[in-house]
Amino acid sequence: MLDQLSGGRLDLGIGRGAVPLELSFFGISAEQAQDRYSEAAEIVLQAMETDTLNHDGRYFKLDNVPISLSPFQRPHPPLWYGTTKPETALLAAEKNINIACIGQSVAIRTITDAYRSRWNATSSAESDSMPLLGMVRTIVIADSDAAAEALAAPAYARWLKTFTHLSQSRGLPAPPNLPTSFEQASDEGHCVVGSASTVHDALKKQVDEAGVTYVMCHLAFGDLPLAASLDTISAVQSKIMPAFGKVQFV
């Protein structure tokens, strides 16, 4: 319905989630998650391509379910798959799905290299366009590096507290590979904050290191003021994007 309402502007992201504890609320172990996810994703894609849905799988059984509304984009909207390691990018490459990577740029490079290798080996024609290889980054741009950090640090702390709320409530460690402070997030490149020139230089280095073709900007988080997000959006559009050529931003 959203794809129809937007005239075909929907991109669909699918993933298993970042907090294994959430699965336990439904009686599902982390070991089952990948197989359940794969089957559920198969059902969702099948539903967008048919008028009547039938499925007889290990976890789900559907019998003659009527599908009365198809997406505007056929056979389905562009797909995105979140990945943090090379092996999970291989299936996305085989299925021609865009990927969104979270992590340090050198680690992301191992993912994009694996994706490119598998996609080149399985692509059906030389004319096929490689899907987008995305990198997620939290970005704050202000008049100076100090001003940007003063905005980003408390907002990241608030976001982190919310994101880890369930884990903390059960006395469990934070999800793996999650920076537990703004300083760590900045040092590892997850957060890119500063003046427009500082952010440009940092992103340029990371894009080259990571081998990505798409930068997914996290611009509103925690209790960051709306004005700060809008200023960052304006700066990214006017001062960052024009300097990156074929690399796309969203």
Set out the fold topology.
Blueprint: H1 2-5, E1 12-14, H2 20-24, H3 30-47, E2 52-56, E3 61-66, E4 79-83, H4 86-94, E5 98-101, H5 105-122, E6 133-141, H6 145-163, H7 165-169, H8 182-187, E7 191-194, H9 196-210, E8 214-218, H10 226-240, E9 248-249
Parallel strand pairs: 1-4, 4-5, 5-6, 6-7, 6-8, 8-9
Antiparallel strand pairs: 2-3
Report on the structure:
This protein is an alpha/beta fold and 250 residues long. It has 2 domains: 1-77, no CATH class; 79-250, TIM Barrel, CATH 3.20.20. The chain is 46% helix and 17% strand. The chain is built from 10 helices and 9 strands. The chain has helices at 2-5, 20-24, 30-47, 86-94, 105-122, 145-163, 165-169, 182-187, 196-210, 226-240, and strands spanning 12-14, 52-56, 61-66, 79-83, 98-101, 133-141, 191-194, 214-218, 248-249. Strands 1, 4, 5, 6, 7, 8 and 9 form a 7-stranded parallel β-sheet that branches. Strand 4, helix 4 and strand 5 (98-101) form a beta-alpha-beta unit. The chain is globular.
CATH architecture descriptor text of the largest domain: Alpha-Beta Barrel
Total beta strand runs: 9
Total of helices: 10
- Overall outline: globular
The CATH fourth-level homologous superfamily of the largest domain: Luciferase-like domain
Q: Point out poorly predicted stretches.
A: none
What's the domain count?
2
CATH class categorisation of the largest domain: Alpha Beta
What is the H/E string?
Answer: HEHHEEEHEHEHHHEHEHE
User: What share of residues are in beta strands?
Assistant: 15-25%
User: Termini, distance in Å?
Assistant: 22 Å
Assign the CATH topology of the largest domain. TIM Barrel
Helix content range: 40-55%
Characterize the largest beta sheet: strand count, sense, and whether it forms a barrel. Answer: 7 strands, parallel
Average pLDDT for all residues = 91
